[in-house]
Amino acid sequence: MKKTIKLWTLLAIMVAFMVSCTREPVSPTPPTPDEDFVSSDWVDLGLPSGLLWAKCNVGATSPQDFGDYFAWAETSPKSDYDWPTYQYWQDNRITKYCSNSGWGYNGYSDNLITLEACDDAATANMSSGARTPTKDEWEELIANTTHVYTTIDTTYGILFTGSNGNTMFVPFAGFKYRFFGLYNGNEYGTYWTSSVRNDFMFEAWFASFTADTLKMHYVNRPIGYTVRAVHASH
């Protein structure tokens, strides 16, 4: 009886071994989008908020490319950047992002002061979760990094270095106004924020970079500026 039990036990072990050797190998679990999305498109600069910044401008294929130009609250580049072509403008009045009915079309007011996703060039043209930074987020970047003016290939700009040693190059991409083409490329950096100027809603805030200064300023919404996106940390 004991010999029979031992024989059956041995046979069971052999069958189990044979099955394990012939079974299809198990593929490793594919990375989730959260694990896979960061490395090529975004950089962690060790900011207090943990916010990630895009390595390239919206519409660019490398850090030194200027990318596309957008009117504030528009998601596609165009050939004429002026009030008559601006999507939220009618009869010399604003039709969205207006907290003062005196400036709104037919007394329009919505109290919106930050871009909605449907009007965000970064959200519309990049991967899920991308958006245009607020005025405060641009200020956080400037305050918590060191800055060196430098050139990559023939493109002049600023190299931001975070507390963790990671870097991000931001080119001086200039701007576009009306139908006249590019102004001040390689001389002046103008990057939209997602924040409207609440005390004068014909204008929105942007990050202004020259060879002397890094500061926040405001300008009429229809002018064509570049966009550098941000993404929440993962």
Features:
234 residues, 3-stranded antiparallel beta sheet, disordered N terminus, 5 helices, 18% helix, alpha+beta, single chain
Compact description:
The protein has 234 residues and is α+β, with helices and mostly antiparallel strands. It has helices at residues 2-22, 33-36, 38-41, 121-125, 135-143, and strands spanning 42-44, 52-54, 89-90, 93-94, 146-152, 155-161, 167-171, 175-176, 182-183, 189-196, 203-209, 214-220, 230-231. The protein has one domain (40-231).
Strand content: 15-25%
Helix content: 10-25%
Order of helices and strands: HHHEEEEHHEEEEEEEEE
Number of domains: 1
Shape: globular
Strand count, sense and barrel status of the largest sheet are: 3 strands, antiparallel
Annotate the secondary structure layout.
Blueprint: H1 2-22, H2 33-36, H3 38-41, E1 42-44, E2 52-54, E3 89-90, E4 93-94, H4 121-125, H5 135-143, E5 146-152, E6 155-161, E7 167-171, E8 175-176, E9 182-183, E10 189-196, E11 203-209, E12 214-220, E13 230-231
Antiparallel strand pairs: 1-2, 2-13, 3-4, 5-6, 6-7, 8-9, 10-11, 11-12
